[in-house]
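Homework-ish question, so no full write-ups if that breaks the rules, but can someone show me the predicted structure for this set?
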Amino acid sequence: MILVTGGAGFIGANFILDWLAASDEPVVNLDKLTYAGNLENLAALAHDARHVFVEGDIADRALVDALLARHKPRALAHFAAESHVDRSIRGPGEFIRTNVEGAFTLLEAARAYWSALPQAEKAAFRFHHVSTDEVYGSLAPEAAPFTETHPYAPNSPYSASKAASDHLARAWFHTYGLPVTISNCSNNYGPFHFPEKLIPLVILNALAGKPLPVYGDGQQMRDWLYVSDHCAAIRRILAAGQPGETYNVGGGNEMSNLALIKTICALLDTLEPRADGLPYARQIAHVADRPGHDRRYSINARKIERELGWKPRETLASGIEKTVRWYLEHDDWVTHAQSGAYREWMARHYGGAHA
Ligand code: NAD
Ligand code: TYD
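A: Not a homework solution, just the prediction itself:
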């Protein structure tokens, strides 16, 4: 089996759903259920014995030790993090605690567990650390996309905390030989994306008749990747990635925020027109820019394509349409995510009986 951290969040939940759709290898899911953790994302697995949910903190060393000893995973996929840049600006403390100290705790626990494994299992073990392209900082308009050797230059408390954890993961490989792999991925989007992030926020604000907030001039560029393509990349890295290696993962779908928002508005104009027939783009509202806002991220994903044979399946056009349709079709999920009612879901469906 494998141990996943942060599996009740956006990418972690998609990863577990895709993993169990592709194989029968069980997953132990350690998640603290912060505001971003939503077990409703995993409703399809509520009665599936292949998914074992454990509510807890990655920074709790005794808990992580106990889980490793009990379940004896052959790999660990580490997603758990505080992930929202705007929150990191308002309150960076939790980002340091979870993203840096939590990663340190996991690495140490994994090292102790791995060191004691028999030789063959030791060689096969993997610690995969899920990271972001934001660690590389901001690219100039004409600069070449980020490769794996691009210098680190994080600009937000979030990206600085992720950069710190990348450095720890790298050092645990070089110093202790722990078989670590790292992926640095661009902005994800798709089902179960928490409505504080740009794409779900725009879809849901548009439908609610609210303003669509564009930070600054809206000309910031992001390289969007459909979440299941990211999950497939991580499965490939767990299967065939080389210890000590970093893999950049991206969709090759650069777009400015303003162009992206207009694309979503145009899709909604067709799929769910406003009652008055006017275009949703009327709701676009420029607001104050985010402090320290990175202008551009762009990923060069040739290494993972060449070495592991991964390629994204979705284009931005196909992925955005799927995503808009998903939000239109999942009223209950949206209502619970917005009202906080998803917090009660666990008690109702699991009856407090977690592993
Ligand atoms: P998310 O905020 O949706 O989910 C994070 C999950 O981690 C939540 O379920 C939360 O409850 C859990 N968690 C937080 N602190 C914890 C702790 N101390 N112990 C245990 N669980 C804890 O985040 P996401 O968007 O799914 O991102 C997952 C990972 O992917 C993160 O490491 C993030 O840095 C990385 N990443 C995200 C993106 C993106 O576009 N969202 C892109 C590249 C990389
Ligand atoms: P976000 O989804 O927060 O991801 P990240 O900051 O990790 O890239 O934001 C994506 C982009 O959209 C980013 O450039 C900030 C911008 N943005 C807005 O313009 N308005 C908003 O309301 C939000 C949440 C983000």
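Now go work out the reasoning yourself. Hint: Residues 351-355 have pLDDT under 50 and may be disordered.
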